[in-house]
Amino acid sequence: EKAVNLKKDLAEMQEWMTQAEEEYLEKDFEYKSPEELENAVEEMKRAKEDVLQKEVRVKILKDNIKMLATKVPSSGQDLATELNVVLENYQLLCNRIRGKCHTLEEVWSCWIELLQYLDLETAWLNNLEERVQMTGNLPDKLDAVNDALESLESVLRHPADNRTQIRELGQTLIDGGILDDIISEKLEAFNARYEELSHLAVSRQITLEQQLQTMRETDHMLHVLQENLTDLDRQLTSYLTDRIDAFQMPQEAQ
Q: Looking at CB atoms within 10 Å, which of 5, 45, 126, 245 has the fewest?
């Protein structure tokens, strides 16, 4: 009777493992929304816990069959053979569920990381857009134009590392058929805005550089003119002081 019960327990354990494999490993999952992906991650975590909890039952079966084998070798030997099959299948099931759980957790982590990089770069784009708008109505002063140019250039020096991460993470998920529609839409919108603002900012930068160069040249010309007028004023004052007749002066002084 003991052998019959143990044989029944082994059969039940094998049946449970077959059902677990069908439910957790053989179903075709499609992750088209973050909610579906998150639910799948949580489901695989529960599956892993459920399978690992059966380890106690497997150990009890193993100990009982060993004990029976010492008392009734013939019955114990047959059960030991069946036990080995169950143990192999159980270990295989544990490894496969662990692997799938780890993969889904990695995928979820990849999705969250992608969102974080998108948030960082979107904040940078907002800052860039604000700096570009600030260059629209500048006072016609050299310092104001110079400050606006330096401010814009400081934002444009933003490294490209985050955008590289966005591209690689997005492509990894899309290649796996995971959230591909949502990610493609997000990347398309981000890239379009990035291209538009980058071109606008670079164009505005060139305009400011040209404006600054013109203002510096004008400022230099005015400075030279002022120096010339100062020298001329000094000469005329000297002529007047010395009571020199205008017709005695050089032509340029006249």
A: 245
Domain count of the fold of the chain: 1
Helix (H) or strand (E) holding 199: helix 180-241
Is residue 237 in a domain? Answer: no
Q: What's the pTM value of the predicted model, to 2 decimals?
A: 0.78
Burial of 93 (0-12, 13-18, 19+ CB in 10 A): buried
Per the CB < 8 A criterion, the answer to whether 152 and 201 are in contact is yes
Quote the pLDDT of residue 247. 61
Question: Is 249 contained in some domain?
Answer: no
C-beta separation of 51 from 94 below 8 A = yes
Is the torsion defined by CA of 209, 214, 220, 223 positive or negative? negative
- Residues 4 and 22: their CA atoms lie apart, in Å, by 27
CA distance 205 to 152: 7
Query: For 64-90, what is each residue's pLDDT tens digit?
Result: 878 876 776 666 677 888 888 888 999
- The CATH number of whichever domain residue 180 belongs to comes to 1.20.58.60
CA 181, CA 174: separation in Å to the nearest integer? 8
Two structure tokens written together for 85 = 């099959």
- Cα(28)–Cα(47) distance, rounded to whole angstroms? 16
How does pLDDT run across 108-136, given as a tens digit for each residue? Answer: 999 999 999 999 999 999 999 999 999 98
Band (pLDDT 50/70/90 cuts) for residue 248 is: low
- Cα–Cα distance for residue pair 204/139, rounded to 1 Å: 16
Q: Is the pLDDT of residue 47 over 80?
A: yes
Measured in whole angstroms, how far is the alpha carbon of residue 53 from the centre of its chain? Answer: 37
Return phi, psi of residue 137, to 5°.
Answer: -125, 80
pLDDT of residue 29: 67
